[in-house]
Design goal:
This protein is mainly α and about 190 residues long. Helix content is about 60%, strand content about 0%. The chain is built from three helices and no strands.
Amino acid sequence: MERDGEPLSARPAVEAEGLHFLHVTLGSLLATYGWYIVFSCILLYVALQKLSTRLRALRQRRLDPAGAAVEPDIVVKRQEALAAARLKMQEELNAQVEKHKEKRRQLEEEKRRQKIEMWDSMQEGKSYRGNARKPQEEDSPGPSASSVTPKRKSDRKPLRGGGYNPLSGEGGGACSWRPGRRGPSAGG
């Protein structure tokens, strides 16, 4: 039985040769580019997964424009919850403001009381700074305390001259700094 002029026994040899050629070609291709092919297949799979999820979401949005219109009660509930949260935050803020005002009033009252105490102590002839300074006795000889005010020494010598500059290298005496020598070290 011959088909197309070829004996049946010759055909399997040609097919075997084709399979051998295919095996060698694919084997060398996988040996050379195998890891690249594996990684590119993995990347392609991940990209297709991400793309399919985005396409599903897009289709869902396109098919449900009526769904958004059906949910105004959810939008109203969300807005009511937001308004309630804002109201609660405002109440907390008002409470903090009241506490702050009360503290401020207490501090002002304390300052006012201290000023009254200072005024009373000054009227009695005591120092307004408390007992840190002792008042002068009126029995002391010499001029009275009200007519002579102690004078500060205005002829003090300043610690450094007005033109002192620590970076200038002047006025330092024996403590002058000089930069090191440039270039490589002298060791050898």
